[in-house]
Amino acid sequence: CRCVPSRALTALPPQAAMSSFAGLSRRGRLALSALGLLAAGGGGLALALRSGLSAGELEMHPPSFPWSHGGALAALDHGRYRAGAAGRGPRRGGAGAVTPFSSSSSSSSLRRGFQVYKQVCSACHSMEYLAFRNLIGVTHTEAEAKALAEEVEVMDGPDENGEMFMRPGKISDYFPKPYPNSEAARAANNGALPPDLSYIVNARHGGEDYVFSLLTGYCDPPAGVTVREGLHYNPYFPGQAIGMAPPIYNEILEFDDGKRGPGAGAAPSRGGAGSQGAQPFPPSPGTPATMSQIAKDVCTFLRWAAEPEHDHRKRMGLKVLMLSGLLISLIYYMKRHKWSVLKSRKIVYRPPK
């Protein structure tokens, strides 16, 4: 290693080390400072005017709601319909068992959400990327999914004569579309095209918070705001004027998750009037179909439709974290063991005599 003597380095002139700003006169420095302030003020004013005139900032941002599936270890509300195929019992732990990846209630928010979509949303919105078989083990059993599919008439063919024919639906069929094409959908909705709901939660900023706020945010326009005929005021929609009428309200439907009493089908007691036959308890009413409950259930269903791997992803993430905790300590020990020789050695330079 050859060292260069310090006297061999040429020193820079003091004028080159001085900044150009310090080399200016006092009047020049003042003019340059004023020009910088003027440019900064003009840029700030332009930015303020642009944000003030932007139509996108006129919409309200949805608040963040405490969703039951929003936690790191929280799963979607499958409830007692997580069983799987028809005839199979509920998951281990019972219908009401509370585990990190199961619902805390026996009723299924996903099943209620599908009911809302089927009875309310499917009249205008499609879900062309969802098939009836996807419901098996999530919201319905296999027999229930087959019964739902058979309610739909699907065009198939051609047959042996080369003609198309109608047949009952199968579980491999996708959800039917309310309109044959986009032009028919626009014609039936005053020129507005209802979006497909398969991935609507991922396609909108805010996710289910935005969808929930949009469904429950219809109100009268404030003073000074006029909405043309055929549109409705909604502060959460961009532009505040939406072509979709309020789709949900209190008691628009009746959830079919009512459960029978604990004595249903039980043998009568000996003697007395009850000995004439079994007196089953009447079915209890289902979940109250309030506007917020309907919106919450359909948003949960749309979250599952957009991310069917939601629960599996979180479960795999937990496994990865647990394995990483074990592997990191082992890798750290191996690193210290392998590098201890290199990091503890000393290099001494002995110049030749």
Automatic annotation (TrEMBL):
Keyword set includes Membrane: yes
Binding site for heme c: 121, 124-125, 244
Superkingdom of source: Eukaryota
The protein's required cofactors: heme c
Cellular component terms per the entry's GO annotation: mitochondrial inner membrane
SUPFAM superfamilies per the UniProt record, alphabetical: Cytochrome c, Cytochrome c1 subunit of cytochrome bc1 complex (Ubiquinol-cytochrome c reductase), transmembrane anchor
InterPro entries documented for this protein: Cyt_c-like_dom_sf, Cyt_c1, Cyt_c1_TM_anchor_C
GO molecular function terms noted in the UniProt entry: electron transfer activity; heme binding; metal ion binding
The entry's keywords: Electron transport, Heme, Iron, Membrane, Metal-binding, Mitochondrion, Mitochondrion inner membrane, Respiratory chain, Transmembrane, Transmembrane helix, Transport
Location of the region described as Disordered in the Swiss-Prot/TrEMBL record: 84-107, 259-290
Co-factor: note: Binds 1 heme c group covalently per subunit.
GO biological process: mitochondrial electron transport, ubiquinol to cytochrome c
Location in or out of the cell: Mitochondrion inner membrane
Family assignment from sequence similarity: Belongs to the cytochrome c family.
Protein known as: Cytochrome c
Organism field: Pelecanoides urinatrix
Gene name tied to this protein: Cyc1
